[in-house]
């Protein structure tokens, strides 16, 4: 797998007294802060996902804002270190906390929040649970003001213009979640895929196994120069870099279908399905059993 090694910009503003936000320019005007392969906890405060921004001639689109409000404010200050252009859009790629908890840093009159047409409902459904758990799990204090829904809803495709730079936002059918969007920068042919693509970190199913596979099979037929995952390094060998995730998901589909056909139950599937993949992924033990549970519930209703 080819990993893009480009110039690192160290930003002076920190998430806390000891952590600085590191930005990488992975293509002209596209900056990413890379998360760590960790469970969200009281040490990392949920700051584990890839987040960043794209710079146009007139303004900036932020793509995901981080796992806590402080990370959002650090991202905002990082942007100001790199460019004086204003933020005009914040695009949330889906509802998961590591991607949306920094939204409050960008909440102002001239900034429009953009998301999947199902994102508002997902935020409403999960918001109170997220708020209740943030303190215990992340040591982060949240209120309802931190759960900021989109102003602009994407049903299929939406093109936004940053000034000489057009981004195509695509709302996907249920896959990783039921509210995933991707962002294509036409200028550099860079696809910001977010959590539709996991590299190194085990993929996490919170939507539909079959739907995710359908989206991957469709997307792998297209050519992209650079693809930015939600977790893991930027790659330039698409669709080769997709195959590890696809293999894992196909393994789940094949083995669970076989167990269902033979009359086995979920408890047996959890103990047997997919363990050939164990050594290929970080956080396998933390997420695999949940993936099997989610996929089994979907597949047992196929026929």
Distance between the amino and carboxyl termini: 38 Å
- Tell me the total number of β-strands: 13
The CATH class turns out to be Alpha Beta
Helical residue percent?
25-40%
Average pLDDT: 93
Query: What summary fits the major beta sheet?
Result: 8 strands, mixed
Question: How large, in whole angstroms, is the Cα Rg?
Answer: 19 Å
Give the helix/strand class: alpha/beta
Q: Do you know the CATH architecture? A: 4-Layer Sandwich
Strand content: 15-25%
Strand order of the largest sheet: 1-2-3-4-5-6-7-8
Protein architecture, described:
- With 303 residues, the chain is of the alpha/beta class.
- It has one domain: Metallo-beta-lactamase domain (Metallo-beta-lactamase, Chain A).
- It has seven helices and 13 strands.
- It has helices at residues 69-82, 97-100, 119-138, 209-219, 243-261, 266-272, 284-299; strands spanning 8-16, 19-27, 30-33, 51-55, 60-63, 87-91, 112-116, 152-154, 157-161, 166-171, 181-185, 190-198, 226-231.
- The strands form two sheets. The chain has an eight-stranded mixed β-sheet. Strands 9-10-11-12-13 form a five-stranded mixed β-sheet, with no helix packed on it.
- Helix 5 crosses helix 7.
- The termini are far apart.
- The model is unreliable at 1-19 (pLDDT under 50).
In short:
With 303 residues, the protein is of the alpha/beta class.
Q: Can you tag this structure with a few keywords?
A:
five-stranded mixed beta sheet, 25% strand, eight-stranded mixed beta sheet, disordered N terminus, Metallo-beta-lactamase, Chain A, 7 helices, 30% helix, alpha/beta, 303 residues
């Amino acid at each position: 797998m080819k990993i893009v090694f480009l110039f690192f910009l160290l930003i002076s503003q920190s998430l806390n007294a000891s952590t600085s936000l590191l930005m990488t320019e992975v293509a002209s005007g596209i900056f990413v802060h890379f998360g760590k392969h960790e469970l969200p906890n009281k040490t990392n405060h949920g700051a584990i996902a890839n987040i960043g921004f794209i710079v146009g001639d007139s303004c900036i689109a932020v793509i995901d804002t981080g796992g806590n409000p402080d990370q959002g404010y650090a991202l905002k200050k990082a942007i100001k270190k790199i460019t004086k252009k204003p933020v005009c859009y914040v695009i949330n790629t889906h509802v998961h906390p590591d991607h949306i908890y920094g939204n409050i840093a960008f909440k102002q009159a001239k900034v429009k929040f953009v998301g999947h047409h199902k994102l508002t409902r997902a935020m409403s459904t999960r918001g109170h649970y997220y708020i209740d758990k943030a303190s215990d799990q992340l040591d982060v204090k949240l209120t309802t003001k931190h759960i900021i829904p989109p102003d602009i809803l994407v049903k299929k495709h939406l093109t936004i213009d940053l000034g000489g730079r057009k981004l195509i936002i695509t709302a996907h059918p249920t896959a990783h979640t039921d509210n995933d969007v991707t962002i294509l920068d036409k200028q550099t042919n860079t696809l910001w895929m977010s959590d539709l693509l996991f590299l190194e970190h085990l993929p996490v199913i919170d939507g539909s196994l079959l739907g995710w596979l359908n989206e991957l099979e469709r997307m792998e037929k297209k050519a992209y120069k650079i693809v930015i995952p939600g977790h893991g390094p930027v790659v330039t060998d698409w669709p080769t870099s997709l195959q590890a995730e696809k293999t894992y998901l196909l393994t789940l589909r094949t083995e669970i279908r076989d167990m269902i056909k033979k009359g086995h139950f979920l408890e047996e599937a959890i103990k047997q399905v997919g363990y050939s993949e164990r050594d290929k992924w970080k956080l396998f033990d933390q997420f695999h059993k949940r993936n099997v549970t989610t996929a089994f519930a979907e597949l047992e209703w196929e026929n």
